[in-house]
TrEMBL record:
GO cellular component, one term: plasma membrane light-harvesting complex
InterPro entries on file: Bac_photo_RC_H_C (IPR014747), PRC_barrel-like_sf (IPR011033)
Name by which UniProt lists this protein: PRC domain containing protein
Gene3D superfamilies hit by this protein: Photosynthetic Reaction Center, subunit H, domain 2 (3.90.50.10)
Any Gene Ontology biological process: photosynthesis, light reaction
Species annotation: Streptomyces toyocaensis
Amino acid sequence: MPIDSIWTYAPGLSGVPEQDLTDFTVVASDGTIGHVDRQADHHGMRHLVVDTGVWVFGRSVLVPVGLVTGVHPGERRVTVSCSRAEVKAAPRFQTDSETMDPDYLTAVGDYYHRLPAREEPAS
């Protein structure tokens, strides 16, 4: 995946950019990560801020929308192409101001871009 496409939804996910995914459950290839707290698009770097609940010590994680492989409105579920461990190992998200920091966003994009390619998870 080219680095710039990590910040845009896959072409096959038409209509998704306009949807409000707030409170949708986010599911990785090996289980649930949490729920979408909010969506953001700063500096052309569109991403989801995901509240992990107690799974990652009550912290939120930032997931670029290029990792989204499916949106299931009836189930209020978003699937992503990475594992729970990969999300947990991503650059730590601590404050809302980081969602507007191009250096932090670049570090997050670089991290996810370097992950090995994998097939889309089953829906």
